[in-house]
UniProtKB/TrEMBL annotation, chains A, B:
This is TetR family transcriptional regulator. Pfam families: TetR_C_11 (PF16859), TetR_N (PF00440). The chain crosses the membrane at residues 157-176. The keyword GTP-binding does not apply.
Length: 204, 204
């Protein structure tokens, strides 16, 4: 039984890795359950034991990758925060980890955004939970910045987290549509304007 | 000749109106060239004389509507700016016009975002030109706010325009995904935080 579970996990991992490779190389439309099965050297029925359909396979492939990216990004952003003590640096480090991931797999990223922005359950819930975790982390970093006096005491940190995602998605979309070659720089400029503040009349 | 051109335009308009109705009622997958032709009382071939395929029809239906919405929104936001003299009010009025349009056609809006975010040429260029026009308008409103002393003299108005779109798209996506019942309120809160500024150390 133990061996069978191990084998099953190994097969699942091999299918996912093959799917990632094909999606990046051949695009979403050029990838099929059959082509993935062929290259992973398993029967199409085996792929369908693990994944309901092609979209399920795409979501699983990306979700796993994003989990790994997020675990690394969380660590890096926390270190930046402790060492440099700047919210801007911490948030930039967080965004950079994700942008770096997408830059390595532009075709896969395009498919991800297109398919996952309007994913159906259960994937919509899983992606939403992932976003909620990152959002909570951003709010936590902002809270720490507040207690250091880096932000006004009345700043809504949850709202700041939403602004972080606004800039992150906008830079990502602009990059995927070919409008901006450097999404991180664009993100950084937007974030800086947000953190700097614009209204001269505000009491300080 | 004149009558034929008139007739052609009237047929095109009737096809578009029927398409909008069907897309809203039956969704993107439930709409076809054939079903639109049937309800508009024209041959399927006639629809295909005007539109290449279903996606072309969707894009044309939305593009025309957005043009109308935008013309109205531009006027309202300019009036707000002249009368109330507040950039925040003007930008909120601008966003409200679009959110109101989407709220009237939620299913169509969902299809729009899904299909048009990654539209191929020529639609990608047309949508990009539309966004560029709105962006220029936002920058112009921000420039006027600057000369009235409502914004710091060194504020990058083009970047402020990008922030406007970041919040607009994020609120729109959150609404379409069921995360926020009131996209305009969410947009307003994000915009206010951006305009208020967050960093207490900034020299004033």
């Amino acid at each position: 039984m133990f061996i069978r579970t191990e084998q099953k996990a190994a097969t699942r991992a091999r299918i996912l890795e093959t799917a990632r490779k094909q999606l990046e190389r051949d695009g979403y439309d050029g990838t099929s359950i059959r082509s993935v099965a062929g290259e992973a050297k398993v029967a199409a029925g085996t792929v369908l034991l693990h994944f309901r359909d092609k979209q399920d396979l795409l979501h699983a492939a990306l979700f796993d990758d994003l989990e790994t990216t997020w675990a690394r990004a969380r660590e890096v952003s926390e270190k930046k925060m402790q060492k440099k003590g700047s919210l801007e640096r911490a948030l930039t480090a967080l965004a950079r980890a994700f942008f770096d991931y997408y830059a390595e797999r532009p075709a896969l990223s395009r498919a991800l955004l297109r398919e996952s922005l309007f994913a159906a359950p259960p994937w919509s819930q899983r992606f939403a939970a992932q976003v909620a975790e990152v959002h909570a982390h951003v709010a936590q970093l902002a809270g720490a910045a507040k207690s250091r006096g880096e932000l006004e005491a009345d700043v809504d940190v949850a709202l700041l987290g939403a602004a972080f995602f606004s800039f992150y998605y906008f830079a990502l979309m602009a990059w995927l549509q070919g409008g901006h070659a450097h999404p991180l720089q664009f993100f950084e400029r937007l974030l800086r304007q947000h953190l700097d503040g614009l209204a001269p009349r505000r009491k300080r």
